[in-house]
């Protein structure tokens, strides 16, 4: 009995080490997004790479889907305070897409463009992490429309709003520019381990409210 208790305590300790501050574990994948769920005809779907690249590139669905695929297991952390661990994804590493374009030296940031009229910004080094991918399948099945079918971005190290659903393109930039939720006060980076949920203006307002100012 003591052996089982120690095993359980060890498992709980390991679990706590995998949960960023303020997060709660879920076994489900909650559905949260801005706007209506888009519907697609893959014969007209495309994906673009623009901005600070030597030559802009546009992929058809067949061209994009025929890029090399990879499976990986990643955790997800949502700014609304849930985390889902050990999710299995299949998709296209960002590096495989970028093999088909040449970034200009001044490219330091990227704006991710997605439907419907959604954007989110990333420092270039976050986009280039080995575990960042364009997801096509979740747990062996094509993405459900509410989770971003046919393609969503996955940036496991950041809060999930940075992993744009229904992604359609990348725009490379010399200077940072706020995306959709960032203009409404979300943090520009969104690191769960640093609890970067909101930008400083929102944090200051919350502190003023708590202080009765």
Outline of this structure?
With about 210 residues, the protein is an alpha+beta fold. The chain has helices at about 1-20, 60-65, 95-100, 125, 180-185, 200-210; strands at about 25, 45-50, 55-60, 70-75, 80-95, 110-115, 120-125, 135-140, 140, 150-155, 165-175.
Number of helices: 6
Structural class: alpha+beta
Order of helices and strands: HEEEHEEHEEHEEEEHH
Largest β-sheet summary: 6 strands, mixed
Question: Which residues sit in consecutive blocks of at least 5 with pLDDT less than 50?
Answer: none
How many extended strands?
11
The overall pLDDT, averaged over residues, is 90
- As for the CATH topology, it is Sulfite Oxidase, Chain A, domain 2
Q: Look at the structure and name the CATH superfamily.
A: Oxidoreductase, molybdopterin-binding domain
Strand content: 25-35%
Tell me the domain tally: 1
Q: Which percent range fits the helix content?
A: 10-25%
The geometry reads as: globular
Could you tell me how far the N terminus lies from the C terminus, measured between alpha carbons in angstroms?
A: 55 Å
Helices and strands, with pairings:
Layout lengths: L1 H17 L5 E2 L20 E6 L5 E4 H5 L4 E8 L4 E12 H5 L10 E6 L3 E6 H4 L5 E6 L2 E2 L9 E3 L12 E7 L6 H4 L16 H12 L2
Parallel strand pairs: 1-5, 2-11
Antiparallel strand pairs: 2-3, 4-5, 5-8, 6-7, 6-11, 8-9, 8-10
């Amino acid at each position: 009995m003591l052996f089982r208790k120690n095993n359980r305590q060890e498992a709980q300790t390991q679990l706590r080490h995998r949960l960023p501050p303020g997060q709660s574990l879920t076994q489900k994948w909650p559905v949260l997004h801005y706007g209506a769920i888009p519907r697609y005809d893959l014969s007209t779907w495309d994906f673009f790479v623009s901005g600070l690249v030597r030559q802009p590139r546009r992929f058809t669905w067949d061209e994009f889907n025929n890029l090399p695929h990879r499976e990986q297991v990643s955790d997800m952390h949502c700014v609304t305070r849930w985390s889902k661990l050990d999710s299995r994804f299949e998709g296209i590493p960002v590096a495989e897409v970028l093999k088909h374009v040449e970034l200009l030296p001044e490219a330091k940031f990227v704006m991710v463009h997605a439907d419907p009229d959604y954007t989110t910004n990333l420092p270039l080094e976050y986009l280039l992490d080995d575990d960042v991918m364009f997801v096509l399948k979740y747990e062996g099945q094509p993405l459900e429309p509410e989770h971003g079918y046919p393609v969503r971005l996955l940036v496991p190290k950041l809060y999930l709003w940075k992993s744009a659903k229904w992604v359609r393109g990348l725009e490379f930039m010399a200077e940072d520019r706020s995306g959709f939720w960032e203009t409404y006060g979300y943090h520009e980076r969104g690191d769960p381990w640093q609890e970067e949920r909101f930008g400083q203006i929102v944090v200051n307002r919350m502190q003023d409210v708590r202080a009765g100012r």
